[in-house]
Design goal:
alpha/beta, Rossmann fold, five-stranded antiparallel sheet, 68% helix, coiled coil, P-loop_NTPase, exonuclease activity
Length: 985
């Protein structure tokens, strides 16, 4: 990968457009990027990273403040990078997401992130010549061409300050975290986790199977009615013995139940015979008693027969008498109706109620004819009444129409003034609505700053708490470390006795090799075992992990506090928020009246036209009402002159006609009632004669005798039932006495059923109890046999599961660095150790050349101190002394050389591992200001070697001496309005 040019616009501290020509800067293979602290040197490296991956290294990516604060509002933030990767030249253009002021109105709007990739040369196979514009497609294409992720690129191309010096001196855990990011060995961690999860899953399954087997053992014991083995040592012999005992108990219970059943059957036969004899005696006694009762009731039966015969002869007399009674009731009603008709006729004004029938008929015809004549004038009376009502309404309508005209004229005069006032209010509300967006944006900005100020105290408190936790974690780790060292020393003191305890006669001593052991060392008081030492080491490791967590939490809290302080650095007056809130509330209230006022103006404008139209219509309506009123008044007056003679002394014609009709109806009703009464009187006399003749025909001297002998239907039914019942009882008793099975039975014999029943109950109780015992024995035996079969099958299936789990557990321990794994290296650590060994080889070649053959890296896979995991050790071999020493003992210049060699070696291995492109451009931001003059000479010699092979190296530093040594420089100038770039050759 080789960079050609970089162009940044409104990015970081650069408000305008700045261009970096890497072809010009890298013509000599080495160039310097320098400037004041905070001028924006590292920002150029961030721009390269952002153009490639859309994000910047480290914590700067979390801040998400890529846009320049000094840039013009119309200038878009953008980064352009042109580079060549794997022989293909391409141009990348990216813009971040940020908030920008609206072009119209007040407030801000979001500028969306964008990206594009354009092929300057021919694209690789499978890519379109037109390039890409989707952000995700651009990112995937860049990673595919480079062959590495953003994190890997940040480590192997943009060498950050102090990063590899820290990696050189890091412990196993920190080095493991970085290597895992670079080589993406997460899949091996997934393999370790898969084994652990698999073991846990199989362990749970095995425990569940074991628990299931133990539950079956308990169920077998429960089914057998015995206690399960206390030591859980149930086996096949215990199970066979239990099944055998239950089978014997079942056989014994079956024989006992059979004997009890035979005895119960015999007792039941005796009980049946006794019941049959007692039943025949009872039936014989009951039949004789029933026949005697029927003979005693014979006189009563004759009386019932005589009463029934007389009642049947009196039926015709009763029927005829009922007809006479009904006619008498009807005659009474007709007489009463005649009296009521006389009263009604007198009320209607007709007093000759005793006149004969011909007079009444003539008077009825006359009244009817008079009513017909009055009917012809009813329509005129009805029309007259409607006309008077209409005339009254017209008078009211005249007054209402005149009042409406007056009101409309008054409204039309007052309307222009109301319209002007409403238009003025609408103008004020519209102006307030236009100011709302700006006030809301300012309120949001002040509210956010107030919220940040509130968070500032919490962030400071969080930093204090994190510092306290960190101090506590450091103390705890130091105590755990001291305790671990003490335990290790005590174990070493007793190591001779520990080795002696493992010796056996004839075995060679691991120390001296002798097979004779005349004086074995004895354990001293307070000796420490290997398990105790391992426990102390584990406690120390836990304390170290907690210390690391506390350090990370402290760094995060400090970073959060710093970010808050930077965002609040400008400073705003907190009282301004209340003023803005008050002004916003007043403006919002005024703006809320805009739509109602606009609607009011429209309504008033419409109202003006409507009132004019309504006024014209009201005047026309008033003239029409007055014309109709005059015409209707004349018509009413003429009709009234015709109706007054016809109504006479009554209020109107209708009332007089109703009176005439009422009189005619009363006379007609009197004629009808009098005729009906006379007809019913004649019919009653004829019916009374018929009743007397019917009594004589039925054999009664008087009608009263016949009515006394009559009975109602219910009594006749009772007589029939009682006579028939008595006859049936006698016949049934005689039939029972004639049955063959009662012949020879003595009715005086007594049968003892209680004794036979007691004997049968006792026999049945014994039989039921024995059967219950048998059923329980059968059930228990069947349950135990079924459960025993399941238990044997479960035992058979459990054995291979236990063997498989033991094998899986052992393999999981090995994969995770435990058990038979003597190096205590997990699979992931083993892979990382292999990668680190490759890095050490590649870095040693560079370090040896840089140090003139003195130093080289040595990879160690030995376990760490206090039994910690090994495999990631990295030391330095000093060829002058021939000894291996820790990297921490190197001097400042030597550490820089080692760090740089390690970074370059790591870059080569990562590129080879990922299949990425050759890295022809490298940036070093390594803190040159910490080097002395001699060390700086060594560094410059090393940098000259780095340029060999066509590689371009860019140094980022503000050290003055480097400016004199490197002719091609890119200077960053810092000003109040933003930074600028300047090339010095």
């Amino acid at each position: 990968m080789r960079l050609h040019s970089l162009e940044v616009t409104a990015f970081g501290p650069y408000p305008g457009t700045e261009v970096v020509d890497f072809d010009l800067l890298g013509a000599d293979g080495l160039f310097l990027l320098h400037g004041e602290t905070g001028a924006g040197k590292t920002t150029l490296l961030d721009a390269i990273a952002f153009a490639l991956f859309g994000k910047v290294p480290g914590v700067r990516n979390d801040a998400r403040r890529l846009r320049c604060d000094y840039a013009d509002n119309d200038t878009l933030t953008e980064v352009k990078l042109e580079l060549t990767v794997q022989g293909h030249r391409l141009r990348l253009v990216r813009g971040p997401e940020y908030e920008r002021p609206k072009r119209r109105g007040e407030g801000t709007t979001k500028q969306q992130a964008r990206a594009s990739l354009t092929w300057v040369s021919d694209p690789p196979g499978g890519y379109d010549r037109d390039g890409l514009i989707r952000i995700d497609e651009v990112s995937r294409t860049v990673e595919r061409l480079l062959g590495m992720s953003a994190e890997q690129f940040f480590q192997v191309v943009l060498l950050p300050q102090g990063e590899f010096a820290r990696f050189l001196r890091a412990d196993t855990q920190e080095r493991e975290q970085l290597l895992e990011k670079l080589f993406s060995t997460y899949r091996f961690a997934d393999v370790e986790k898969w084994f652990r999860d698999r073991r846990t899953e199989r362990g749970r399954d095995l425990e569940a199977r074991r628990a299931g087997a133990m539950r079956l053992v308990a169920r077998v014991a429960q089914a057998a009615g015995e206690e399960p083995p206390e030591d859980h040592s149930a086996d096949g012999e215990w199970l066979d013995l239990m099944v055998s005992r239950l089978s014997e108990a079942e056989t014994e219970a079956r024989e006992k139940a059979r004997q009890a059943g035979v005895a119960a059957a015999a007792a039941e036969q005796e009980m049946t015979k006794a019941r049959e004899l007692a039943d025949r005696v009872r039936r014989l006694r009951n039949a004789r008693a029933e026949l005697a009762e029927c003979e005693r009731m014979a006189p009563q039966q004759q009386e019932w027969l005589a009463e029934r015969a007389k009642a049947r002869r009196a039926v015709p007399v009763v029927v005829a008498n009922r007809g006479a009674a009904q006619l008498q009731v009807e005659l009474d009603h007709a007489t009463k109706a005649e009296e009521e008709a006389i009263v009604a006729a007198r009320k209607a004004g007709f007093h000759r109620v005793d006149a004969d029938e011909s007079f009444l008929r003539a008077e009825s015809a006359r009244l009817t004819e008079e009513a017909g004549g009055l009917a012809q004038l009813l329509e005129d009376a009805k029309q007259q009444k409607k006309a008077k009502l209409r005339l009254t309404k017209l008078i009211d309508a005249d007054w209402a129409a005149e009042e409406k005209v007056n009101n409309l004229e008054a409204d039309l005069v007052a309307l222009p003034e109301k319209l002007k006032a409403a238009s003025d209010e609408l103008l004020l509300a519209s102006e307030a609505a236009a100011r709302l967006d700006g006030l809301r944006a300012r309120q949001a900005e002040l509210t956010e700053r107030l919220r940040l100020r509130e968070r500032l105290g919490d962030a400071e408190e969080k930093v204090k708490n994190a510092e306290a936790v960190l101090r506590k974690a450091i103390d705890a780790h130091q105590q755990a470390r001291d305790h671990s060292l003490t335990i290790r020393a005590r174990r070493l003191d007793g190591m001779a006795a520990e080795l002696a305890s493992r010796l056996a006669a004839g075995d060679a001593c691991p120390v001296c090799g002798s097979t004779e052991h005349p004086a074995l060392a004895q354990l001293i008081p307070g000796a420490v075992s290997e398990a105790e030492e391992a426990a102390a080491v584990a406690v120390e490791q836990d304390a170290q992990n907690e210390r690391g967590e506390a350090e990370r939490a402290h760094h995060a809290a400090v970073a959060d506090l710093t970010a808050l302080q930077e965002r609040l650095a400008s400073g705003d007056d907190p009282a301004e928020l209340s003023e803005v809130d008050k002004l916003l509330a007043e403006t919002a209230a005024l703006a809320a009246r805009r739509e109602p006022q606009r609607e009011l103006v429209r309504e008033l404008e419409k109202r003006s036209a409507t009132i004019s139209a309504e006024l014209s219509a009201a005047k026309q309506e008033l003239a029409s009402v007055r014309t109709e009123r005059e015409q209707l008044g004349k018509t009413v007056e003429m009709r009234q002159k015709r109706l007054d003679p016809a109504r006479g002394e009554y209020s109107d014609v209708r009332v007089r006609r109703e009176h005439v009709l009422l009189s005619a109806a009363a006379v007609t009703e009197l004629l009808r009632a009098r005729g009906q009464r006379e007809q019913l009187s004649k019919r009653l006399t004829d019916q009374q004669t018929e009743v007397h003749e019917a009594a004589i025909s039925a054999g009664f001297a008087e009608v009263a005798d016949a009515l006394a002998a009559a009975r109602d239907e219910l009594r006749l039914a009772d007589l029939d039932r009682m006579i028939s019942e008595l006859e049936n009882r006698a016949a049934a008793a005689k039939a029972v006495l004639a049955e063959p099975d009662l012949a020879g039975v003595d009715p005086k014999v007594e049968v003892d059923l209680d004794s036979a029943a007691a004997t049968l109950a006792k026999a049945r109780e014994v039989a039921d109890a024995d059967v219950a015992v048998l059923r329980e024995a059968e059930r228990r035996s069947a349950d135990v046999k079924a459960l025993a079969a399941r238990l044997r099958a479960e035992w058979a299936a459990l054995s291979p599961v236990e063997e498989e789990y033991a094998e899986l557990a052992a393999l999981t321990d090995v994969v995770n660095g435990r058990g038979q794994n003597s190096r205590r290296m997990s699979l992931r650590s083993y892979v990382l150790a292999a990668r680190l060994e490759e890095v050490a080889v590649a870095a040693s070649a560079r370090l040896s050349r840089m140090s003139q053959g003195r130093y080289s890296f040595v990879h160690s896979d030995a376990r760490g101190s206090h039994g910690t995991r090994g495999g990631l050790g990295l030391d330095v071999l000093d060829d002058y002394s021939g000894k291996i020493r820790p990297a921490k003992t190197l001097s400042g210049g030597e550490s820089f050389l080692a760090s740089l060699a390690l970074a370059l070696g790591l870059a080569d291995v990562v590129a080879a591992e990922t299949g990425g492109a050759l890295l022809d451009t490298l940036f070093v931001d390594e803190g040159f200001g910490t080097l002395d003059a001699d060390t700086l000479d060594e560094v410059m010699d090393t940098l000259d070697e780095l340029r060999a092979g066509g590689r371009v190296v860019g140094l980022v530093s503000h050290v003055e001496e480097l400016r004199q040594r490197i002719p091609v420089r890119l200077r960053v100038r810092k000003a109040r309005s933003g930074s600028r770039l300047e090339v010095i050759a």
